[in-house]
Amino acid sequence: MINGFPASLRQEVEEAINVLPSDYNVLLTDGQIHNIDSLIHPTEYKVYFGGELLTIPYRLYFNEPKLEKEKLLSPTQKEILNCIYLRHHNGFVRQKRLEQLVDTTDDFVIPYTLQLLGEFVMEILEVLDRHINDKTIDKYIHFISENKKYWQQTESRMISYWNEYYRRPAYPKYLPPKYATRKEYIGQQLVDKLKKRTHNKSIA
After folding, report:
1. How far apart are CA 47 and CA 143, in angstroms?
2. What is the distance between the alpha carbons of residues 92 and 21, in angstroms, rounded to a whole number?
3. What Å distances lie between residue 25 and 22, 29, 59, 94, CA to CA?
4. What is the C-alpha separation between 80 and 86, in angstroms, rounded?
5. Per-residue confidence (pLDDT) for residue 175, from 0 to 100
6. pTM of the full structure
7. How far apart are CA 138 and CA 17, in angstroms?
8. Does the pLDDT at position 171 exceed 60?
């Protein structure tokens, strides 16, 4: 996890990692406690950030830390911890942690937040839409410019998840009308927002 953040943040990352519970008895999404062999899934994704290659775990299984320990962290350390939990296996945890990052303008969170665009939980995408705003969007564009292949893969995953879970007429009984077509899907709207900004900057 240390390699998932810029080297300049190493000490801050170590402090955040220190509050992670080492309990291998983990509450999973089925509501049951399971003993997990590894709290870090071996699958990773790699991105560039300011010229540095970051390696980020795809999924984590840590329980959340005790609140009293988390409160002792500095603001930057709390942001790092929230980023770490954006890779959590539980979508509710990812959404809660993203909510705590909505107002940050620190660009080191973007390798974690943008990954969520390639996932399928629409409630998380709605929170992400609030973070991609006038204060942060140029930082997203810079990150995308460093990771063009990763961006293409993220967009492709977004389309695949829309096609699998939200496209009509596949699931007409459960979907609100606003997701009937891809252009109405929040994931596609986020992609379009970023592409429009890229186009405008290239013209400027």
Report:
1. 9
2. 18
3. 9, 13, 16, 19
4. 10
5. 55
6. 0.89
7. 29
8. no
